[in-house]
Request: fold
Amino acid sequence: MKNIAVEKNLSTVSDYLKSQGYKVYDIDVDQKGNKDFIDGFDAVVVNGLSNNPMDIQTTVASKTSIIDARGMNPMEIKKELDKRLGW
Reply:
C-alpha cells in the first residue's frame, strides 16, 4: 500500500482516498516543508503550490510526487495519483 500525505485543509480529498483504500496521513503547513518528513511518502497532495512558503517543489526528494489539488476534485486527484505511481 502506498503512503499518501494530504494537506489538512483537504479533508474531502483525504476522506475520499481513504475510502478508496489508500493509506492517508494528514499534514500541516509546517510538516510539508520538512524534507525528511515528506521523504517518507510516495506522494503529497497540497492545496496550491503558490501558497507554499517553503517551496515544497525544491525541498522534497525527487521520489516523492507532489500533486497540486487546486482546481481538482477528489476523483481527479486519485486518477493523477494512480498515473504517477503506476497503479
Summary: The mean pLDDT is 82. The chain has one domain: 3-85.
